[in-house]
Amino acid sequence: MKRLKLILLACPLVLLASCSFKGYKFNGASVDYSKTKTIQIADFPIRSSYVWGPMGPLFNNRLKDQFADHTKLIQVKRNGDMKIEGEITQYTQRNKAVTSEGTSAQTELSMTVNVRFTNTKNHAEDFEKQFTATSSYETTRSLNSVQEELVMQMTKDLVDQIFNATVANW
């Protein structure tokens, strides 16, 4: 009896995990692969006055990896069915919280990217917009000691936002 219950519970989960219909998958991407086969992802140059050297390559690699790992789209250098391009426009820090003595307790780091998305198979989905991610750290720590970790967190957040806006279409 217990075995039968286990099988009855497991079957729907297996079916749900393998389900896809009309290009929609439960991994987050909703691409009609019968029409859309390629994607062109340009490197995003840094246009911010304040920069951290590894930020550009970290962002660009993570963006390309996200589409490689979560879609069946083939990445091409030109003439993609979908095209993502843009630039890193802002990388700033500001005081976020103040102690009772009037000194800064937390600093917020933010990163903004401008994205231009073109879908040659459905131009109604084209857009240009900005995405921003933030992360905070205690001012008892130096920016140098937390910068890599925070930029990696913000990059992940930005890439998720871009992925959702371009191919998730929920």
Description:
It is elongated and about 60 Å long. It has helices at 2-18, 55-70, 143-168; strands at 20-21, 24-25, 38-41, 74-75, 82-98, 104-119, 127-138. By secondary structure, it is α/β, with parallel strands linked by helices. It starts with a helix and ends with a helix. The strands form 2 sheets. Strands 4-3-5-6-7 form a 5-stranded mixed beta sheet, covered by helices on one side. A two-stranded antiparallel sheet has the order 1-2.
Distance between the termini: 40 Å
State Rg.
21 Å
* Overall geometry: elongated
In round numbers, the mean pLDDT is 86
Summarize the amount of helix as a percent range: 25-40%
Oligomer designation = single chain
In brief:
This protein is 35% helix and 32% strand. It is of the alpha/beta class and 170 residues long.
